[in-house]
Amino acid sequence: MDKISDVENEAHMARGELYHAFTPSLVAQRKRCNYAYRRFNESEGSRRELVGLWKEVVNDKSPLPPRGPTEEEDDILLQDEPYIDSPIKADYGINIRLGRGVYINCNCTFIDTCLITIGARTLIGPNCSFFSGTHPLDPFLRNGIKGPELGAPITIGEDCWFGGNAIVCPGVTIGRGVTVGAGSVVTKDVPDFHVVVGNPARILRKIEPKEPDPALVEMST
After folding, report:
1. pLDDT at residue 218 above 90?
2. Which of 12, 20, 135, 194 is labelled catalytic?
């Protein structure tokens, strides 16, 4: 690849095209995220403090609501914010989008070269990994840390459930209400309301929801 500006290099990255990851700018961005998630992982603070520290990880500048009169009431005010059990790891943080009420168990990893979007009310078991970054197969183009990398976005619908140690690969779209079995490696898109298991993950069966749709219940309240 020819030498290009940081702006153009990072635009290539966002589009999932070949880019160089070890420029000073991107190294600095990963260091910022590393510092932020380490603060989050080491905190024993309140729910509000943890929500604020997570916002630092993903570089979310939006303000939290005013503090409630008691800790219990304050927790209710923050109930739609993601619940994340530490430790957690991310590359950049800025490319992670979590919906309302997402829960992430401990030891999860986000290689967020490109956007990783997770829909509302999705539950993620421990030790899950989401890899939106990848490398060229040509070893001479890959060239260690001197060569280019690339990526593709990961999109996960609302109301999904990931068993522990599941892995999602670059470019995968997972539909609404999907269950991913523990230890599965998802390499291809999954349609709404299906169970997938295995390596590579394959459809096991279709899910027929019987309870009221929580998204519609939220809209009516």
Report:
1. no
2. 135
Look at phi and psi of residue 214 and say left if phi exceeds 0, alpha if psi is from -120 to 50, else beta.
alpha
Q: Is 135 a catalytic residue?
A: yes
Q: Residue 23's pLDDT is what?
A: 96
Per-residue pLDDT tens over the stretch 65-113: 999 999 999 999 999 999 999 999 999 999 999 999 999 999 999 999 9
- Measured between alpha carbons, how far is 83 from 50 in angstroms, rounded to an integer? 9
